[in-house]
Structure to design on (143 residues):
Protein backbone atom coordinates (compact mmCIF):
# COMPACT_ATOMS: atom_id res chain seq x y z
CA UNK A 1 0.00 0.00 0.00
CA UNK A 2 2.87 2.37 0.53
CA UNK A 3 2.78 6.01 1.54
CA UNK A 4 -0.24 7.16 3.45
CA UNK A 5 -0.72 10.41 1.57
CA UNK A 6 -0.43 9.05 -2.00
CA UNK A 7 0.19 12.22 -4.02
CA UNK A 8 -1.61 10.82 -7.08
CA UNK A 9 -4.93 11.00 -5.25
CA UNK A 10 -7.06 14.14 -5.03
CA UNK A 11 -7.76 14.94 -1.38
CA UNK A 12 -10.35 16.57 0.85
CA UNK A 13 -9.95 16.94 4.62
CA UNK A 14 -12.88 17.80 6.88
CA UNK A 15 -13.64 17.99 10.58
CA UNK A 16 -15.17 14.72 11.77
CA UNK A 17 -18.65 16.22 12.11
CA UNK A 18 -21.81 14.78 10.59
CA UNK A 19 -22.56 18.02 8.73
CA UNK A 20 -19.46 17.38 6.56
CA UNK A 21 -20.56 14.02 5.15
CA UNK A 22 -22.14 15.69 2.11
CA UNK A 23 -18.92 17.59 1.34
CA UNK A 24 -16.92 14.36 1.24
CA UNK A 25 -19.52 12.54 -0.84
CA UNK A 26 -19.78 15.40 -3.35
CA UNK A 27 -16.00 15.62 -3.70
CA UNK A 28 -15.55 11.89 -4.33
CA UNK A 29 -18.62 11.48 -6.54
CA UNK A 30 -17.68 14.51 -8.67
CA UNK A 31 -14.25 12.92 -9.22
CA UNK A 32 -15.81 9.55 -10.08
CA UNK A 33 -18.22 11.11 -12.56
CA UNK A 34 -15.41 13.16 -14.15
CA UNK A 35 -13.68 9.91 -15.16
CA UNK A 36 -16.94 8.31 -16.34
CA UNK A 37 -17.45 5.81 -13.52
CA UNK A 38 -20.76 4.08 -14.28
CA UNK A 39 -23.84 5.41 -12.43
CA UNK A 40 -24.50 2.06 -10.71
CA UNK A 41 -20.93 2.13 -9.36
CA UNK A 42 -21.21 5.75 -8.18
CA UNK A 43 -24.29 4.68 -6.19
CA UNK A 44 -22.20 1.99 -4.48
CA UNK A 45 -19.46 4.54 -3.78
CA UNK A 46 -22.00 6.93 -2.26
CA UNK A 47 -23.46 4.27 0.05
CA UNK A 48 -20.05 2.97 1.13
CA UNK A 49 -18.81 6.50 1.85
CA UNK A 50 -21.87 7.22 3.94
CA UNK A 51 -21.36 4.08 6.01
CA UNK A 52 -17.62 4.48 6.55
CA UNK A 53 -17.51 8.25 7.09
CA UNK A 54 -20.49 8.31 9.49
CA UNK A 55 -18.98 5.47 11.51
CA UNK A 56 -15.69 7.34 11.82
CA UNK A 57 -17.52 10.53 12.78
CA UNK A 58 -19.61 8.67 15.36
CA UNK A 59 -17.11 6.29 16.95
CA UNK A 60 -13.45 7.04 16.15
CA UNK A 61 -12.96 9.97 18.50
CA UNK A 62 -13.70 10.24 22.21
CA UNK A 63 -16.21 12.65 23.69
CA UNK A 64 -15.01 16.21 23.18
CA UNK A 65 -12.08 15.05 21.05
CA UNK A 66 -11.82 16.91 17.75
CA UNK A 67 -10.73 14.91 14.75
CA UNK A 68 -10.44 15.11 11.01
CA UNK A 69 -11.08 12.73 8.16
CA UNK A 70 -8.93 12.88 5.05
CA UNK A 71 -10.36 11.28 1.92
CA UNK A 72 -8.49 10.77 -1.32
CA UNK A 73 -9.70 9.35 -4.60
CA UNK A 74 -8.55 8.71 -8.13
CA UNK A 75 -8.59 6.30 -11.00
CA UNK A 76 -6.44 3.35 -9.99
CA UNK A 77 -5.67 0.74 -12.60
CA UNK A 78 -7.86 1.07 -15.70
CA UNK A 79 -11.46 0.42 -14.70
CA UNK A 80 -10.73 0.71 -10.97
CA UNK A 81 -11.75 3.72 -8.83
CA UNK A 82 -9.85 4.02 -5.57
CA UNK A 83 -10.91 5.75 -2.37
CA UNK A 84 -8.59 6.12 0.65
CA UNK A 85 -9.96 7.28 3.99
CA UNK A 86 -7.62 8.30 6.80
CA UNK A 87 -8.42 9.22 10.38
CA UNK A 88 -6.43 9.59 13.60
CA UNK A 89 -9.13 8.06 15.78
CA UNK A 90 -8.88 5.00 17.95
CA UNK A 91 -7.56 1.93 16.13
CA UNK A 92 -10.34 -0.03 14.43
CA UNK A 93 -9.90 -2.67 11.75
CA UNK A 94 -13.33 -3.11 10.16
CA UNK A 95 -12.09 -6.12 8.22
CA UNK A 96 -11.33 -7.99 11.45
CA UNK A 97 -15.02 -7.88 12.40
CA UNK A 98 -17.07 -11.01 11.71
CA UNK A 99 -19.90 -10.91 9.21
CA UNK A 100 -23.29 -10.65 10.91
CA UNK A 101 -25.50 -13.74 10.94
CA UNK A 102 -28.20 -12.52 8.57
CA UNK A 103 -30.09 -15.79 8.97
CA UNK A 104 -31.09 -14.79 12.51
CA UNK A 105 -34.24 -12.80 13.13
CA UNK A 106 -33.79 -9.09 13.91
CA UNK A 107 -34.64 -9.77 17.56
CA UNK A 108 -31.82 -12.30 17.86
CA UNK A 109 -29.06 -10.44 16.02
CA UNK A 110 -26.26 -8.54 17.70
CA UNK A 111 -26.31 -4.79 17.16
CA UNK A 112 -23.83 -3.58 14.56
CA UNK A 113 -21.88 -5.22 11.79
CA UNK A 114 -24.34 -4.68 8.96
CA UNK A 115 -22.52 -1.56 7.72
CA UNK A 116 -19.20 -3.37 7.45
CA UNK A 117 -21.01 -6.20 5.68
CA UNK A 118 -22.47 -3.67 3.22
CA UNK A 119 -19.02 -2.23 2.51
CA UNK A 120 -17.58 -5.69 1.85
CA UNK A 121 -20.46 -6.53 -0.50
CA UNK A 122 -20.45 -3.28 -2.50
CA UNK A 123 -16.71 -2.73 -2.90
CA UNK A 124 -14.52 -4.92 -5.07
CA UNK A 125 -11.57 -4.73 -2.72
CA UNK A 126 -11.09 -3.35 0.80
CA UNK A 127 -7.80 -3.09 2.69
CA UNK A 128 -7.02 -1.72 6.15
CA UNK A 129 -3.80 -0.73 7.84
CA UNK A 130 -2.83 1.13 11.00
CA UNK A 131 0.19 3.34 10.38
CA UNK A 132 1.66 6.21 12.39
CA UNK A 133 -1.39 6.40 14.67
CA UNK A 134 -3.80 6.51 11.74
CA UNK A 135 -6.52 4.21 10.44
CA UNK A 136 -6.12 3.88 6.67
CA UNK A 137 -8.89 2.26 4.69
CA UNK A 138 -8.50 1.66 0.96
CA UNK A 139 -11.65 0.83 -0.98
CA UNK A 140 -11.64 -0.07 -4.67
CA UNK A 141 -14.59 -0.16 -7.06
CA UNK A 142 -14.40 -1.78 -10.50
CA UNK A 143 -16.52 -0.68 -13.43
Amino acid sequence: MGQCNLPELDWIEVAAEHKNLGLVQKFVLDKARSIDVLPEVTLKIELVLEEVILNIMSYAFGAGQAGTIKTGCALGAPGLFRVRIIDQGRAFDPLAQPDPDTALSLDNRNVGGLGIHLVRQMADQVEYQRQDGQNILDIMFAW
Strands lie at 10-15, 68-75, 80-87, 125-131, 134-142. The chain has a mean pLDDT of 88.
